[in-house]
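pinging the channel bc i need a second pair of eyes. not urgent but kinda urgent?? the chain im working w is below, pasted from the shared doc
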Amino acid sequence: MPNVNDKLSVWYNGRMLGYKNANVSILTHSLQYGSGIFEGIRAYEAKEGTAIFRLDEHINRFLNSAKIYRMDLGYSHKELKFAIINVIRKNNLKSCYIRPYAFYDDDKIGLAIENKKISTYIAAVEFGAYFGDSKIKGINCKVSSWHRINSKILPIKAKASGNYLNSIIASSEAKNMGFDEAILISDSGYVAEGPGENIFLVKDGRLITPNEGSDILLGITRNTIIEIAEDMGFIVEQRFVRRDELYTADELFFTGTAAEITPILSVDKIKISKKPGPIATALSNKYDAIVHGKEIAYNGWLTYL
């Protein structure tokens, strides 16, 4: 991925600043303890101009993450939406990845969060395919030795920075062993998700994806694929998924804002398919058409600048 442009403008606590001027202390609470919350949103160059995909749903999840962690951001849904649009306009981006982030902007040592200042920033950067050419070709995965965290440990419905240490260690393990990405199992022994992606199986023409009880983050792209798959006439099952079902699936693929729809060709060196399957390909093509404004029926998911 490209480095962040030093000339980038970011929104920081209600003001537009140059990227280099948006600074915090190295002792900031959220840097020390991972106590921030964030979102990942994409905007695409669409038929009628730049379009942000499912912006309202992402802002809702951002605000819900803040609520779970008792963070009063001081900004409404409308204000955050306006700020995101302005960041993209200010940077003259036709397509981009958008990162809203809220954190405890306090440099006192200690875990306590009471009475600490909360800051919010929004950045938008040019961003290609998360898995590069493998988004089209497909990737090879390993079931991680690390389990997915659960709600007995941390609120998994919040998209919180600290949660992703679990993702980082699982992904790093897989990559150091020669795989492209990891798949995490829940503490109950069922398939959960990838480090930053939800997972789908295809079996006998049906789509199967781990349910909410599988310790997953409820992905907005996951929800998108469920809706468009059903519109296309596919049966979608949300249920507990056993590890061995991965090995015998007809197709496997990840979904996510960054990953979009990425086919999985093998798991633990067990081959699923030699190339991306027909259902994953059809869904990916439909998704690409939607985010680029070529499917009028889904234009309600697009916020045009």
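so The chain has a mean pLDDT of 95. and The domain at 134-291 is CATH 3.20.10.10 (D-amino Acid Aminotransferase; Chain A, domain 2). — does that match what u expected or am i reading it wrong
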